């Protein structure tokens, strides 16, 4: 405990307790009323709490990982590390996109690197060969000490690449690292129906921004839902938009939130004369054709969906105090086919370079500040209510729901 000059409370919410999973530590977060609280500060740095999030939240749950258009053709593959796990996504000969653990079943070497197109995967260590569907095709000279083959027709299926459960919606590829539990359709609930007329599945990613951040994954996720920061952090950008906000009814499963801002134009741009954009997509249902959706799909996916395209955020945990943010610009294929697409799209990318960087910078400043021994977390302001909702959703997953 610091000396009396700090006015430290009797219970210092920055100092990690021995048992971070004791529900009594979160009584203030659980309490509902006019005064709400966010998570204790140790939840943004504790290795124990981070591991509990991974075990209870990320590994068994659905996580948005990539766009299907990353592998548009049969035989296309793309390797990546997602939540520190080496993976390869590939479009098979049957045109289905699958995700495999990028590790050979023999001695664990990476079976693929980078991106490209192939007919099979060949491990560079001992030349084991796998099909695009993950089946073992060959293991040269793999015999025991008596020259008896160790791979036979009877056990060959045991040696295929390990497939990671995956499913897709709207052109987004989702993965979960443990089998069982609810389907992606059940997890998403009514969201696909609300956004159906935007036809996300017909969009393609034209630009990506990637930020490796020295900040817990919750920092950016909470910032996206925090309306209190906009007049300050975005005073010369997003704050210039004048819109009427309406929040849609919460879904029964609570795995997503959605709000709609009514306005002319698109918040994928900035409201200044030199930000010329694309026309609204003609198929969008009224009144969604005049405004912007702001969506969160918990735990780490967010979307700013205009009437002319979409901006998708994936905040991926990489450690207790580190995360990776991927921001994808999406436009309809018909828009991308325009002769002037590249020139006009620069206005959208320019907006992202300003607004997203403002959010990243403030997330990093917050992360650096709460590492201080003098850091405290006080009562939330009314526009920060979503932070309490996020906190309780996390606690429901990590500790179990309250009575």
TrEMBL record:
Keyword Transmembrane helix in annotation: no
Keywords: 2Fe-2S, Iron, Iron-sulfur, Metal-binding, NAD, Oxidoreductase
Stored Gene3D superfamilies: Naphthalene 1,2-dioxygenase Alpha Subunit, Chain A, domain 1, Rieske [2Fe-2S] iron-sulphur domain
GO molecular function (one): oxidoreductase activity
Cofactor(s) for this UniProt protein: Fe cation
Database matches in Pfam families: Rieske, Ring_hydroxyl_A
Domain Rieske: 62-175
Protein name, per record: (2Fe-2S)-binding protein
């Amino acid at each position: 405990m610091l000396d009396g000059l700090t006015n430290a409370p009797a219970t210092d919410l920055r100092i990690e307790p021995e048992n971070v999973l004791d529900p009594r530590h979160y009584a203030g977060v659980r309490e509902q009323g006019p005064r709400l609280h966010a998570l204790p500060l140790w939840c943004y740095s504790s290795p124990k709490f981070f591991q509990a999030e991974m075990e209870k939240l990320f590994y068994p749950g659905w996580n948005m990982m990539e766009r299907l258009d990353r592998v548009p053709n049969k035989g296309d593959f793309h390797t990546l590390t997602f939540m520190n796990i080496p993976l390869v996504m590939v479009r098979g000969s049957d045109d289905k996109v699958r995700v495999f653990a990028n590790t050979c079943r023999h001695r664990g070497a990476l079976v693929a690197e980078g991106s490209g197109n192939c007919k099979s995967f060949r491990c560079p260590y001992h030349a084991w060969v796998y099909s695009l569907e993950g089946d073992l095709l060959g293991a040269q000279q793999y015999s025991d000490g008596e020259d008896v083959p160790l791979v036979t027709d009877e056990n060959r299926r045991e040696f295929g690449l390990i497939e990671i459960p995956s499913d897709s919606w709207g052109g987004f590829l989702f993965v979960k690292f443990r089998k069982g539990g609810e389907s992606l359709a059940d997890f998403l609930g009514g969201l696909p129906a609300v956004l159906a007329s935007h036809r996300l599945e017909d969009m393609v990613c034209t630009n990506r921004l990637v930020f490796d951040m020295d900040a817990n994954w919750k920092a950016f996720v909470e910032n996206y839902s925090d309306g209190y920061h906009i007049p300050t952090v975005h005073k010369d950008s997003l704050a210039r938009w004048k819109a009427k906000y309406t929040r849609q009814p919460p879904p029964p499963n609570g795995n997503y939130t959605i709000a709609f801002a009514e306005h002319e134009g698109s918040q994928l741009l900035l409201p200044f004369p030199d930000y010329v954009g694309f026309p609204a997509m003609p198929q969008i249902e009224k009144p969604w054709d005049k405004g912007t959706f702001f969506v969160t799909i918990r735990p780490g996916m967010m979307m700013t969906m205009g009437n002319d395209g979409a901006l998708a955020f994936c905040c991926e945990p990489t450690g207790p105090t580190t995360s990776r943010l991927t921001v994808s610009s999406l436009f309809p294929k018909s828009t991308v086919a325009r002769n002037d697409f590249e020139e006009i799209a620069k206005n959208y990318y320019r907006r992202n370079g300003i607004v997203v960087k403002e959010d990243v910078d403030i997330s990093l400043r917050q992360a650096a500040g709460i590492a201080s021994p003098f850091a405290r977390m006080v009562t939330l302001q009314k526009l920060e209510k979503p932070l309490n909702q996020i906190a309780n959703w996390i606690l429901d997953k990590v500790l179990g729901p309250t009575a």
